[in-house]
């Protein structure tokens, strides 16, 4: 892949026409013409395919697909596809990824891809002995659960453990919950673990004499974590009128706010999800599941808090970390049906679900940095304003060089409206 490290290069991509961007992907990133035409939307999801995905289909809803540049994750360059309607997310993720390059980019890893299936057992005479009966039969139960998905077993997946949790005091009295821990390899895993939970239900009823009620995966996938860390060298922190210490300490103080106050943490984590959801969507994964997991994990201590940390190291550099559940797959479901989801995986050269999770959390960390850096210095509106001005200039009919000139003037006048843009254009073109 042709590196695009410098500002010049990045701005070049930004200023290319759509056709030129597609050509760049083909030429420099060695993407085949078909993959590019799928990503371009020209050859994307067909209505007939959509009709098989959900019920009562009447059409296909489009969203912009952008590419974040400059990302190095675990030593590898990666172009990151993002499906999102909000301006400035793709640009700011790319810019933060660029600031991370001198220290090697993002270093990420995942825990084993283990999902949790929950089996609720009610109407028990006595929960403590029921718990022991289940634990005594653990090996047998795991063997039964191991037979539900031969494909997963072939790839080394399957049940890993069984845990039993007691709820002594609930609105319906005591009950217990069996957790089946299931390694789902490269799948998101919902189907496999739900089937396994349903298969174990009669066995558990026989063992305990109770009644199995719910059998469903937990979206608090805290056995399937993705983590990333990044260092921004001190010399890359200063910008405009802000010196490096001010920027660094401002970011740390902004993070400290989110670490203690749930009102701020919700917004802080929303900013992280600004980069995470777009990649989850681009790859055909279940973004509601990832959202649910993220926020439940952020509240795991009983108090909702930040998914990231920011601090300074001994040399005064800024160091950031992120840790959160990441239940994404690269096989099965929409990841294999939606042509753009497949093409997004090709674009990123993804071979395992773990690699995908590592890229996703790296982008989340980058996006969080972008928000904290802007909020603790010039504020968020300035950056938004120039991007918004560009969109308004294009909407008003600006062409070629006019786009940059007109958006600069609109931003300077702080009057970013299509009517004003049209007036200026008419004046210039007289
Ligand atoms: C806006 O979409 C996201 C931010 O509010 C995130 C944050 O406040 O950290 C800017």
Low-confidence residue ranges: 1-8
Task: State the CATH architecture of the largest domain.
Answer: Alpha-Beta Complex
What class would the helix/strand composition place it in?
A: alpha+beta
Question: What order do the SSEs take from the amino end to the carboxyl end, as H and E?
Answer: HHHHEEHEEHHHEEHEEHHHEEHHHHHH
Q: Which small molecules are bound? A: (R)-mevalonate
Radius of gyration: 25 Å
SS strand fraction: 15-25%
How many helices?
18
Spatial order of strands in the largest sheet? 3-8-10-9
Helix content range of the residues, please?
40-55%
Number of strands: 10
Number of domains: 3
CATH topology of the largest domain: 3-hydroxy-3-methylglutaryl-coenzyme A Reductase, Chain A, domain 2
Gross geometry: globular
Q: Outline the biggest β-sheet.
A: 4 strands, antiparallel
CATH class placement of the largest domain:
Alpha Beta
Distance between the termini: 45 Å
Looking at CATH, the homologous superfamily of the largest domain is 3-hydroxy-3-methylglutaryl-coenzyme A Reductase, Chain A, domain 2
Mean of all residue-level pLDDT scores: 93
Give a verbal description of the structure:
The chain is α+β, with helices and mostly antiparallel strands. The chain folds into three domains: 67-110 and 224-370, 3-hydroxy-3-methylglutaryl-coenzyme A Reductase, Chain A, domain 2 (Alpha-Beta Complex); 114-217, Hydroxymethylglutaryl-CoA reductase, class I/II, NAD/NADP-binding domain (Alpha-Beta Plaits), CATH 3.30.70; 383-428, Orthogonal Bundle (Helicase, Ruva Protein, domain 3). It has 18 helices and ten strands. The chain has helices at 7-15, 18-28, 33-39, 47-53, 89-100, 127-136, 138-145, 150-154, 190-208, 244-260, 262-282, 287-298, 334-337, 339-348, 353-375, 381-395, 401-413, 418-428; strands at 65-73, 76-83, 106-110, 114-122, 158-167, 175-183, 211-217, 225-232, 308-312, 318-325. The protein has a four-stranded antiparallel beta sheet with strand order 3-8-10-9. It has a four-stranded antiparallel beta sheet with strand order 5-6-4-7, with helices on one face. Helix 5 (89-100) crosses helix 15 (353-375). The longest helix has 23 residues, at 353-375. The model is unreliable at 1-8 (pLDDT under 50). The protein binds (R)-mevalonate. (R)-mevalonate is lined by residues 86, 267-268, 270-271, 274, 371, 375, 380.
């Amino acid at each position: 892949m042709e590196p695009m490290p410098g500002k010049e290069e990045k701005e070049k991509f930004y200023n290319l026409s759509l056709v030129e961007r597609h050509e760049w992907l083909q030429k420099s990133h060695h993407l085949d013409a078909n993959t590019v035409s799928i990503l371009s939307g020209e050859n994307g999801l067909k209505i007939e395919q959509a009709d098989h995905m959900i019920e009562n289909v009447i059409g296909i809803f489009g969203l912009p697909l952008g590419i974040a540049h400059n990302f190095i994750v675990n030593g590898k360059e990666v172009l990151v596809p993002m499906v999102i309607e909000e301006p400035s997310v793709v640009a700011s993720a790319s810019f933060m990824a660029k600031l991370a390059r001198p220290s090697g980019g993002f270093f990420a890893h995942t825990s084993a891809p283990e999902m949790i299936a929950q089996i609720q057992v009610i109407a028990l005479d006595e929960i403590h002995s029921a718990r022991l009966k289940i634990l005594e039969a653990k090996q047998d139960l795991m063997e039964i659960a191991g037979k539900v998905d031969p494909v997963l077993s072939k790839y080394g997946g399957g049940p890993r453990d069984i845990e039993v949790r007691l709820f002594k005091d609930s609105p319906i009295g005591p009950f217990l919950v069996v957790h089946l821990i299931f390694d789902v390899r490269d799948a998101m895993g919902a189907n496999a673990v739900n089937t396994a939970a349903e298969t174990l239900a009669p066995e558990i009823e026989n063992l305990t004499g109770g009644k199995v009620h719910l059998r469903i995966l937990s979206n608090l996938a805290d056995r399937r974590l993705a983590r990333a860390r990044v260092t921004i060298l001190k010399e890359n922190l200063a910008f405009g009128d802000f010196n490096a210490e001010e920027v660094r300490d401002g970011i740390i103080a902004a993070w400290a706010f989110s670490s203690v106050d749930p009102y701020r943490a919700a917004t802080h984590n929303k900013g992280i999800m600004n980069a995470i959801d777009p990649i989850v969507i681009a790859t055909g994964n279940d973004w509601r599941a990832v959202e649910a997991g993220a926020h439940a994990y952020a509240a795991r201590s009983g108090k909702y808090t930040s998914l990231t940390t920011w601090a300074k190291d001994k040399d005064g550099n800024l160091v950031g970390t992120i840790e959160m559940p990441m239940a994404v797959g690269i096989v099965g479901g929409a990841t294999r049906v939606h042509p753009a989801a497949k093409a997004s995986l090709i674009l990123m050269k993804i071979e395992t679900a773990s690699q995908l999770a590592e890229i996703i959390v790296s982008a989340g960390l980058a996006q969080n940095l972008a928000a904290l850096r802007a909020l603790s210095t010039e504020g968020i509106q300035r950056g938004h304003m120039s991007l918004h001005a560009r969109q308004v200039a294009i909407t008003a009919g600006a062409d070629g060089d006019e786009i940059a000139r007109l958006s600069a003037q609109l931003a300077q006048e702080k009057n970013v409206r299509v009517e004003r843009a049209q007036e200026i254009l008419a004046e210039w073109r007289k």
